Amino acid sequence: MKKIAIIIALACGCGLVQAQENYFFVNWDVNTPMTNTNWIGSTSTRGIRGGYRAVFGSQRQFSAGLDMSWATFSEYKPTETFQQQAGAITTDYFNYIYQLSFAASGQYYFHKSTNERFFSYVGMGLGANQNKYTVFYNIYKDQHSAWGFLARPEAGILLRISTRKRIGLMAAVHYDYSTNKSNDYNYSSFSAVGVSVGIMSMQW
Amino acid sequence: MKKNFFLFALVAGLAWACEPTPDNMKLLDQLVVQTHYDTEVNFTDYATYSISTDTIGFISNANPNDTILTEHDTPGYPRPVLNQVATNLNKVGYTRVEKNANPDLGINVYVVNDYNLFQQVVYPSYYYPSYYGYYGSYYNYPYVNTYAQNTGALVVEIVDLKNIGADKKVRVLWTAYMGDVYSTINLVQQSVDAIDQAFHQSPYIGR
Fold this sequence. Notes:
The complex is a heterodimer. Chain A is mostly beta strands.
C-alpha cells in the first residue's frame, strides 16, 4: 500500500509540475472521527494539510494535484479493569491515532471568469493513509500501524487577497473514508469529517 | 521570500502535529495493576499467612548486590506497603501468624528493577558535500545517542505453604504486578492504592 501511494504521487507529480497556473497551500486541519467513536470520538485540532494543485481549462474550471496531511487524534480513558483469562489488569490510558495521508486530487471550480478573486470548488481525492493506533498507559505503550485506501470528497473556497497579490486564503470541508483498520484494537474502517483553513500561494 | 514563508509554515505545522504524547502527570499518577491467579486453587482452603514487617525484596540488573529494601535503608516505603498487603489479607478473612507458626500462605513482596541502556545511531538527514566541501562533511558523520531507562514493578505473591511438595517447591497461587514504581508522582500513596486495587480486582481471594 505504501508503494502504491508513492507511485501514484510520483506519477501525478511528474505530470503536474509543467502546468503554468497552479497554487499550493498549507492549512490547519480540524477533524472529528465518525466511526469507532468508542475508541476515539474527540475532535482533533492537531492537523495540518499541504498540497499542490495545477489549474487547467480556459476559465480555470479544473485543477489536479497532490495533498498530504498529518493529524493526531487522542482521547483520555478513565481507569478501567479488563478481565483476562486468569486475572485482570487495571489502568487509565490514552488512545492515540497518528495519521499520515497522501491523495491525488481533482477539483471543479464554480467561479465566473470575470471574478478573479473568489473561487469555490468541489473535489475528490484518492490515495492512501497510515494510521498508527497507539495506547499509552503509565510508562508503557502499545502500537499497531496499518495502511489503507483513502477516499476524500471535498468542497472549499479560495479567496485571493487582491488581484495584484498572489497570496490568498483557503477554507475547505472534507470527508475522509479509509479502509484502514486494526484487528488488535478492534478498530474497523476509519472515517472523519474535517474542516481546514489556511493560506495559499497562486501562480497566475 | 514567499516560498520561505510557506516552507516555514509547513515545517512549523508538521512539528506541531508530529506525534505528540500524553501529559505525563496524568499518565503517571496511578500504577498499572495486573493480577494473575491459579484457577485450580480454592482460596477458602487456607486460613493463615505470614508476611515480613519491614523488609521487601529487591531484584535489580543495575546493582546485583542489592537484594532487599529495608525500612532502615529506604525509610517510608517498605512498612506502608507491607501493612497494606496485610490489611487486605485480614479484610478477606485470613489470620496473620509468625513465620515459625506454620502459616498456610507465604507472602512475598519485592521490587523488580529493570535498568536498560539504549544506543541509537543517528544519520543526519541532510548532506550537502558539494556545498560545504570536504571539511563540511565532517559535521555529517553519523553519531550515537545513548540513553538509559530505569523501570520497575512492585510485585506481591501469595505462595502455598500448606501443600509443599516432596521436592520442597512451593506453588505461587496469586501474583500482582504494579508499575511503574520508578516514575511516580507519589510513590507510597500510589503503591498503597495499587495494592488495594489488586485485591479489589481479585474477589476470589478470601475465606
